[in-house]
Write a structure and sequence with these properties.
Layout lengths: L2 H11 L3 E2 L9 E7 L5 H12 L4 E6 L7 H7 L2 E4 L4 H14 L3 E5 L14 H9 L3 E7 L4 E3 L3 E2 L5 H15 L14
Parallel strand pairs: 1-7, 2-5, 2-6, 3-4, 3-5
Antiparallel strand pairs: 6-7, 6-8
Length: about 190
Amino acid sequence: MKPATARFLLTKIHRFTIVDTDMPPEPKHIVLGVPHTAIADFIVAWLYYRSIGGNPRVMIKQEFFFWPLGALLRRLGAIPVDRQNPVRITKQVIDAMEQSTSFHLCIAPEGTRKPVKRWKTGFHTFARAAGVPVYLGYFDWGKREIGHGPRFECSDNAMADLRAIQAFYKEKGVQGKRPGHLAYLD
């Protein structure tokens, strides 16, 4: 899909305002998508990333890769993952990043659309192992704003980084499509 088409669908049909209009400058990076409370988050995030000229890659549980949905998901940049084997996921993603000249991984640290008490730190592991930056992306359904947010350099302390990242989202006041699912920001 061309950027202009994605921009039209995102701004005119879904009524989102695009806050960050330029691609992050690094050819390889990770963009967090917060808050992830509904399947519609994938749609608006994908449209956003295409609208700024990106080719987003996302991890989706392998159970969704049945015919014909699997072919469509792959075409949209989805990577099937076996959630029962996190070590394999890590290796698979890092290998894919290393083999590509350009790799934009968009990931929801919650790991699910359901309310969670604790975020997953896989994005942190990927960023550190591949030496790529993380951008604090968001889709705020309350303000109808979307952007890739600021660059965040991961340190060797995943839990401290996670607290700092969550503080950013809490201060920003992002709202999910299903606001009752944001308990992790309390």
